[in-house]
Amino acid sequence: MQAVKRDKASGDTAGKRNRRAETTIAAILAATEKMVLREGSDRISILDVCMLAGISRGTFYRYFASQDELLDAFARHKRASFQQAMIEAVAPYAEPTARFHALVRYLDDYAAHGQARLLLRAAPEYTLRLFGRLFNESLVRIDDLMRIVFDAWDRRLGIRTDRELICELLIRCVLSELVVPNQRPEDGVQRIVSFLYSIVECESGDTAQNKS
């Protein structure tokens, strides 16, 4: 019985320690974002990050060995946040059309209202490297999330849509929006949807013509 109690107490302590570590890391990453937006990635100071996060330098070095390691972790955090938010945006929708529209709404909102454009202005080289990794990761993620959409298009049109091209166009639309904002943000979603549907319809027409 005593051994069971000790194991339970040990487990509770470890759980609290893990939650405290997660909270501390989240505070460090939030402070890093504020510093990057304010000073750029080249001028970020570990001391300033610690002050903003409300921690000591000793606590900081418990989780990150250097400024470069911190910036790498921050980039991973931003990419992971983007992917997770995208998953959550489309998860409620099983119907293909609704799921596709949910994805485009998310991407449009990210480009128009997210922090990415501010990061690009504050730390262009750093953010462009982040975008490069995000681009490749998102191709795989969107293809997975949109599988039921692409399957529905294939059945409806009687062709195999170029899934990789569509995923690439979606991400490139987001990146171009971040660099050169849309002058008509209120109809951004519908324009992207109409454009992609026109590509799919053209592909279907070309396939039918070749068969005839």
Automatic annotation (TrEMBL):
Looking up InterPro entries in the UniProt record yields:
DNA-bd_HTH_TetR-type_CS, Homeodomain-like_sf, HTH-type_Tx_Regulator, HTH_TetR
Q: Which Pfam families match?
A: TetR_N
What does the UniProt keyword field contain?
A: DNA-binding, Repressor, Transcription, Transcription regulation
The record places the DNA-binding region at 45-64
State any single GO MF term. DNA binding
Residue span, HTH tetR-type domain: 22-82
SUPFAM superfamilies in the cross-refs: Homeodomain-like
PANTHER family, per database record = ACREF/ENVCD OPERON REPRESSOR-RELATED, ACREF_ENVCD OPERON REPRESSOR-RELATED
> What is the designated name of this protein?
Transcriptional regulator, TetR family
- Which species expresses this protein natively? Massilia yuzhufengensis
